[in-house]
Amino acid sequence: MSQIHLLYQLQQIDSEFQDKRQRLAEVLHAQKETEELLAARKRAETAVAQLQTWQGQRQNLTLELDSINSKAKRSEQRLYSGNVKNPKELSDLQHEIASLGRRRGALEDEILEAMIMIEDAETEKAEADEQLAAITAHWEKSQAHLKKEQNELALRLHTLNEQRKQLAPRIDATQVAQYEQLRQKKHGLAVAGLKQNMCMGCRLTVSANKMKEAQEGKLVYCGGCGRILYPI
């Protein structure tokens, strides 16, 4: 088997290795949680916090209302017991009962508002939980596919690496060195296919003489891009 053919095989291995390695990096990156998933989780967490805030506020208001009711009941019992004779004390008691009544009304309005907000918060939480569940299920399904692809890519990269180890020693060391230099300069493509007198690396037409030499298995370089030419 000619050296140029072996170089072309080496190029095929290296090109596929480069592509597979790039894809593996993309797959690994894609296994991170998506912005959509993070946003959905944030929405669900915010909904829970909002609901708990309103529930806590309602509880505090209810406790205060119970305290107001108890205090008002005691004051009313005292007022109507007939035990209070002092006019000023009676007046103060009446003002206190009236003040407690106003506070009771305000608390009842605040509790009603809190109950409305709780209902809204429960609706938002239910919607946020449903959205999060759907997005999580979709993400987990995609992760399973990505994990499978990751394993396949890792296996293929290992195979390509082993193939390269077996192939490289069969090629003249000087030619391998030239090949590696070209690969660095030409974005990974050192050996370009030569098809119908055209270099597949730069799309320039190759002379008939170079075409003939390449077909004879000689090491021929493209006059346009400088890559090694291999008839395909």
Could you explain the architecture of this structure?
The chain is mostly helical. It is 76% helix and 5% strand. The protein has helices at residues 3-30, 35-80, 87-167, 173-185, 208-215; strands at 191-195, 198-199, 228-231. Helix 2 packs antiparallel against helix 3. It is rod-shaped, with a radius of gyration of 41 Å.
Q: Could you provide a short overview of the structure?
A:
The chain is mainly α.
Profile the largest sheet. Answer: 3 strands, mixed
Briefly, what CATH class of the largest domain?
Answer: Mainly Alpha
Strand content: under 5%
Number of domains: 2
| Spatial arrangement of strands, main beta sheet | 2-1-3
The count of strands amounts to 3
The pLDDT mean sits at 95
What is the CATH architecture term of the largest domain? Orthogonal Bundle
Structural class by sheet pairing and helices: mainly alpha
Count, helices: 5
Helical content stands at over 70%
What global shape is seen?
rod-shaped
Poorly predicted runs are none
Rg, alpha carbons: 41 Å
Element pattern in H and E = HHHHEEHE
Q: How far apart lie the N and C ends?
A: 15 Å
Tell me the CATH topology of the largest domain: Helix Hairpins
Notable features of this structure?
rod-shaped, 2 domains, Helix Hairpins, 5 helices, mainly alpha, 3 strands, 232 residues
Topology readout:
Layout: H1 3-30, H2 35-80, H3 87-167, H4 173-185, E1 191-195, E2 198-199, H5 208-215, E3 228-231
Parallel strand pairs: 1-3
Antiparallel strand pairs: 1-2
